[in-house]
Amino acid sequence: MLNEMVDWKETLEGYAIMLDVLGLKREEIKIEMEENRVLRVSDEGKKEEEKKGGHWHKVKRSYGKFYRQFRLPQNVDLDSVKAKMENTVLTLTLGKLSPDKIKGARVVSNVGEDQQSDKLNNHGTK
């Protein structure tokens, strides 16, 4: 498994997650949005590097799965997630939703059994 470092920064406009992905190529990295606002960055982990030259031959292999998960805050605009890889750093940028567009916890009223029966009777359905 890779030894990755992560920085997570919040700005007025959004969030930036910087993840060191040493030894990975851009096309090997998979970025997914899972249920419950979880962002997952992963790689299958099968690597083979071959170097030839002169009278020597070298093959470097490593196996193992790499993944990192981040639970995103409620104010992240899930449609705004962007990824950019530069050198060995993957930067994910995530915009913020305006306060009126944040979907928070929904409050459900708890109606007692007597009140529920009366309500049904008043509407003619029981």
What is the alpha-carbon Rg in Å? Answer: 25 Å
The average pLDDT score comes to 78
Q: Can you tell me the overall shape?
A: elongated
H and E order: EEEEEEEEEH
Largest sheet: 4 strands, antiparallel
* Neighbour order of strands in the largest sheet: 1-2-9-8
Number of domains: 1
Architecture per CATH nomenclature, i.e. the level-2 architecture: Sandwich
Task: Determine the CATH topology.
Answer: Immunoglobulin-like
Number of helices: 1
- Give the CA-CA distance, first to last residue: 61 Å
CATH C-level class is Mainly Beta
Helix and strand composition category:
mainly beta
- As a percent range, the share of helical residues equals under 10%
Describe this structure in words.
Keywords: Stress response. This protein is mainly β and 126 residues long. It has one domain: Sandwich (Immunoglobulin-like), CATH 2.60.40. Helices cover 8% and strands 44% of the residues. The chain contains one helix and nine strands. Strands 1-2-9-8 form a four-stranded antiparallel sheet, with no helix packed on it. A hairpin with a 2-residue loop joins strand 8 and strand 9. The longest helix has 10 residues. It starts with 5 loop residues before the first strand and ends with a helix. The mean pLDDT is 78.
